What does this fold into?
Amino acid sequence: MKKNVKAEIISIGTELLRGEITDTNAVYIASQLPLIGIELQRITTSGDDIKKLAQIIRQSLSRSSVIITTGGLGPTQDDLTREAIALVLEEELFTDTDLVKELKAQFIRMGREMPPSNLQQAMRIPSAASLPNPRGTAPGWWVETNGKVIAVMPGPPREMLPMWQNEVLPRLKTRFPVDVIQARTIKTFSMQEARVGELVQPYFEAANPTLGIYAKPDGIQVRLIAKGSDAAHLLDITEKGIKEKLAPYVWGTDNDTLEGVVGQALSHRGLTLATMEQFTGGLLGHIISNSTLSLRFYRGGVIVNSDLADTGLGFPVTDGVTGAVAEAMAQSIKDRFSTDIGLSITGVDCQRVASNQSDVVYIGVADALGTKSWTQQFMINRSDSVERAAVSALFRLRERLIENKQMDYVK
Amino acid sequence: MKKNVKAEIISIGTELLRGEITDTNAVYIASQLPLIGIELQRITTSGDDIKKLAQIIRQSLSRSSVIITTGGLGPTQDDLTREAIALVLEEELFTDTDLVKELKAQFIRMGREMPPSNLQQAMRIPSAASLPNPRGTAPGWWVETNGKVIAVMPGPPREMLPMWQNEVLPRLKTRFPVDVIQARTIKTFSMQEARVGELVQPYFEAANPTLGIYAKPDGIQVRLIAKGSDAAHLLDITEKGIKEKLAPYVWGTDNDTLEGVVGQALSHRGLTLATMEQFTGGLLGHIISNSTLSLRFYRGGVIVNSDLADTGLGFPVTDGVTGAVAEAMAQSIKDRFSTDIGLSITGVDCQRVASNQSDVVYIGVADALGTKSWTQQFMINRSDSVERAAVSALFRLRERLIENKQMDYVK
It folds into this structure.
């Protein structure tokens, strides 16, 4: 196996050093590099200071073959990434007339006149090829110099992300071809990270595939990365072994979402869903409706933020938060929205009742076979509890569908 | 005014370079340093590699007076922060018998025996004072060397945070005393970042207070940081001037949230609110219900994810998405939930209708004085559109309350 290509990320922006924004670009790019066999060895965050920036770029070039920068490509005097690279490579910046035309056309499409300050975004150095930015006015750069590469992208994630996917990633793959690399992610819910780690421990000892464990809002994920011509086969074997260890907590792989896998099962069978939420205040509906598929099965729902009797919708009067209440809510919303399934969440927020206990949440499902409820406790802060409760409701709905033979376990 | 003390953060852990976890420690510490007059000039993220780590620490010490490290203090062979610092300072690590006793006592409290590997967490160098870690087994270090400081903290945020607040921050304040520093944030919505920048431009020229402009999901923010004995006065004057420039887009300051300021006005007047959302799928209700105050004014709402006629709730049949529909929805939910105000969102999702246009959203309000609607277009990705639409609805509700003299402009 070939030696890994070494890379560094440079995140640029004084706002990063003031802690005003979280650098989500670096963590995203860092997660992508192993998939193309490139080894990230350092991330440096710098302010918009041309001397410091030039020094950082110079040192990175002395250590690594690939330098990836984000930020500092705006139209203001503070945006100095272009100048810093020109300084390090001892090249002159010039105005690219084609880029000026493109920028002006972009402003015309936005119905605005281009301010003169945006002209600096059309500047480049001779060794830089321009990378299109469909979502902003800052083109990126792809610089080849002395056998090394500098990929220069804008800071806003919504501009960086498509430029990474459409421009930088394909060029890196071509420029630094590697043995076949394949990745697979196994997604679980309702299991502690430490427990997942224990169960998959034997697989950590293998050099190929390598394992990573990630804690995400929708559960613990295990990522496998395999190299070499038998990568696919290695992944299949390892995935099978890990799924056996972690079943029945595994709900999906790779780009699956919990709302997606549940939605697929529902729409496949022509089943419809409605929700009634107290405690999560609309988050469950929001998560479900975030996918286009939801138009085929999710009819909508009711958010309750006070005594159920007060909604004016004729929902049952209750005197507490229990599993029976969750089931009544699920049944009620199923009837009201004339759906096949009703899904409900009700909970006691320990911060709101000013006690020191954990949040207690009940999840209810009503379907053709009756009703069922589950309870869960969360010893975490409120916003995490709310998110976990909404994800939990989807996980429980999945369990119910499996129990009803309307959905299969992940094989 | 004294010159700022310069600092660097070093975030340590191979998992950071693999993109497995987001470095929330660095952004938190970065946001804290300006408040004690310390200027962060670089953040470096490194893997658990003793040579690279030692090189980074050595270079940081050559540039900055304060080095803050997080991570690499665990009990495994991969945890090399202690060793790297010892190497750079040319000091010998020794086992601190007091720390061993404390660690053993901690394990007894947890009902476990201490594994031998944890002994390395009781090691320190002569120039390091130990910092207690009530939430973990890794004590921190406070190192004073050649007039410089190295503050060494564990990586898990729940261990780092109390150590920062209780140990490192107080020591930094004592070690590098500064003039009074005060900060203030002015929050706006419905204004482009560039426009805010233009309007506050004159204030950027002042050395005190300094300004920063930040784009957040709930709008553009201007943060002022003032130093010296008349900091409070300087802030007041600048805040007043900026608010005059940016009114009526200013909706709050410092820790205000849009749902909070609207909620305060509603609950102060005993007014109640219900929502009806299509397009945002529950996010509006979720944002409103996230504050404890919401129990006093927010009764709940309805999420619609398909044709309005299909909800079984008797809401108006519609044949399109218009301002009139938004107003009818707001009136309908106001009546159904028997509230003083109904707030609605309806929209056309350009991705769902597979056209290439922008998302068009209508926001409706119904109250004692009638109904009103607004329209907005978003040329951004769906999840951003949804978030902006929900925040927009709260901003429009605020405008309506001001128009009705039920709320005041921010003074």
User: Anything to note?
Assistant: The first helix of chain A runs from residue 14 to 17. DSSP finds twelve helices and 17 strands in chain A.
